[in-house]
Design goal:
Strand 17 and strand 18 form a beta hairpin. The protein has 16 helices and 23 strands. The strands form seven sheets. Strands 17-18-16-15-21-22-23 form a seven-stranded mixed β-sheet, with helices on both faces. A six-stranded mixed β-sheet has the order 3-2-1-5-14-13, sandwiched between helices. A two-stranded antiparallel sheet has the order 4-7. It has a domain of 173 residues: 2-Layer Sandwich (Nucleotidyltransferase, domain 5). By secondary structure, the protein is of the alpha+beta class. The termini are far apart. Helix 3 runs parallel beside helix 7 and helix 11 crosses helix 12. It binds adenosine-5'-diphosphate. The site of adenosine-5'-diphosphate has 20 residues, from helix 10 and helix 12.
Length: 513
């Protein structure tokens, strides 16, 4: 047997599965991505096909192994990360009766609203999951109330990670963090919560067994192992969800370490050593291990805002990028960098997709405020990038109530490909921001859990010495002052516009019907 030098982190994201082949000290040897579509059979429904995700995950892993050009027997294990809040109804053979309904699905807005008004506080204090359409709890209430056929016929309710584990290893288990994010799991007792189950109309036998992140699955069939380009006996370590793993993979584990991730969505998160919730229900608190919880707030409007800007304002750059074989985002970022911090007094509220933290308001809408004849496309793009960060800053203010002022800030996710966006982050927060070489922090966190489960490393915190860092951004004080001034206005705008957002959301809903 050759010595084993490598480890794979598999990250099942919102739009793609990424497999990263790392050396044991965090250097990326190869990475590969398999994408999958998102379906919208009704305006607010957001679904995916579990089998398409499985195929993408297999392709991602096999591609990474082949690109790495190594002997498959040199790989120690695969650690798994996945996006939270997905829900699939399956029969007793674990075959899907429904699509995978994702975190972005908004079908249960009304159910979430009424659940929040009735037992929201009691459930939130126990589960740490704000009552919102993102969570499986709200989706299950919607299924129950609408007699959704897959729900009525389901033997079990599982997430996309559980689907892969049951397909590949015939094991019905779920890690604490994915379980936490369902809204059905008690973060104090590490058990499914009876009150939440009864609200959802299901039993705990219909859910998987919650297990620690170090749990190991083994025994791929020969055929699957061949497809994956892995040995059949390779251990798969269950890992956690993408949020805590991004914190781990970036080294934001100690008190005061804050991780900011901007992928399609975004989040600001901090690890804490005790579960903490309060009646305001503004941030989440999910169990990670028996002595670590993760607190933070998600935004619906991360990189997706830039995607939207690219689509509506960047037609020319998209075309140019095609001709030059370059990246349209880089061309748009170059344009935005021609403009000063603060975009000449143009503010953008990024709530294109409703908003989760800190407002938890599905009716919130995006807006440009302060437009004048002097504003050009570059101002609109820069204001868009700034708006995403202002939103994260406002969530950070809420998080401070529980965890104090950030001591160190770490950034990861697709947005970290843009030095300008990282500088905007640094200048708005007014603190240095550390950026790792690989922006695939969740995958490295998952891989590290794998190494930890196998006894290859001594502790989770030891990862700090194995994160190749790229650079530290330093705040520009002048820009920080500009942003502080504009933020005073930004912070008021949501509240000032809230009734108008509601009226417009109602109008839009009626138009769609
Ligand atoms: P996911 O959450 O699906 O895993 P990623 O972490 O890959 O997504 O992030 C995707 C987002 O990253 C895109 O929506 C886009 O906003 C942003 N992005 C991708 N490339 C660039 C770039 N070159 N410059 C700035 N932002 C980028």
């Amino acid at each position: 047997m050759p010595p084993k030098h490598y480890v794979i982190g598999l990250d099942i994201g919102t739009t793609s599965a990424k497999a990263i082949l790392f050396t044991k000290n965090g250097v990326v040897l190869a990475e590969n991505e398999g994408t999958y579509p998102v379906y919208h059979p009704h305006p607010s429904w957001v679904e995916q096909d579990p089998y398409e995700i499985e195929e993408a995950a297999i392709a991602a892993i096999s591609g990474a192994v082949q690109k790495g050009g190594i002997n498959r027997n040199e790989i120690l294990c695969v650690g798994i990360s996945s996006a939270m809040h997905s829900l699939i109804c399956v029969n007793d053979q674990h075959e899907p009766l429904s699509p995978s309904i994702t975190w972005a699905d908004g079908r249960s807005v009304d159910q979430a609203k009424s659940a929040k008004a009735t037992f929201g506080e009691s459930l939130y204090l126990k589960t740490g999951t704000p009552i919102h359409p993102m969570s499986p709890l709200s989706k299950l209430i919607w299924m129950k109330e609408t007699n959704y056929r897959p729900y009525l016929n389901a033997a079990k309710f599982i997430s996309i990670k559980e689907f892969l584990l049951v397909r590949w290893f015939n094991q019905s288990i779920v890690d604490y963090a994915i379980a936490s994010a369902s809204g059905l799991f008690n973060i104090h007792t590490f058990e499914w919560d009876e009150e939440a189950l009864s609200v959802a109309g299901i039993t705990k036998e219909q859910l998987s067994e919650p297990v620690p992140s170090t749990s190991i699955c083994q025994g791929l069939t020969g055929q699957l192992a061949d497809k994956l380009h892995l040995p059949a006996d390779i251990p798969f370590v269950i890992g956690s969800s993408d949020g805590p793993l991004a914190n781990l993979g970036i080294g934001a584990i100690a008190p005061g370490d804050v991780a900011i991730t901007v992928g399609t969505s975004g989040a600001i998160r901090q690890m804490v050593s005790k579960p903490r919730t309060d009646k305001l229900q503004e941030v989440f608190c999910y169990a990670v291990t028996q002595d670590l919880w993760i607190m933070g707030g998600p935004t619906n409007n991360g990189g997706i805002v830039y995607q939207w800007l690219k689509e509506v304002l960047g037609e020319m750059e998209v075309q140019q990028a095609l001709e030059q074989n370059s990246d349209p985002y880089d061309l748009l970022t170059a344009l935005a960098s021609q403009v000063n911090a603060g975009s000449n007094g143009l503010l953008f509220l990024p709530f294109l997709n409703g908003e989760r933290a800190p407002y938890w308001d599905a009716n919130a809408r995006g807006s440009y405020i302060g437009l004048t004849l002097s504003h050009k496309k570059q101002h609109m793009i820069r204001a868009g990038l700034e708006g995403v960060i202002f939103s994260l800053y406002s969530i950070g203010e809420t998080l401070e109530r529980f965890a104090g002022k950030p001591a160190s800030i770490f950034a990861s996710g697709g947005f970290a490909r843009s030095p300008l966006w990282l500088q905007i982050l640094t200048d708005i927060f007014g603190q240095p921001v550390h950026v790792p070489v690989s922006h695939q922090s969740s995958a490295w966190g998952a891989a590290w859990f794998g190494l930890y489960a196998l006894g290859e490393v001594r502790s989770l915190t030891d990862i700090k010495d194995s994160i190749p860092m790229k650079e530290t951004y330093v705040p520009n004080q002048n820009n920080h002052l500009v942003y502080q001034e504009l933020y005073k206005t930004y912070r008021e705008l949501y509240y000032a516009l809230k009734p108008h957002f509601k009226a417009l959301a109602t109008f839009q809903k009626n138009e769609q019907n």
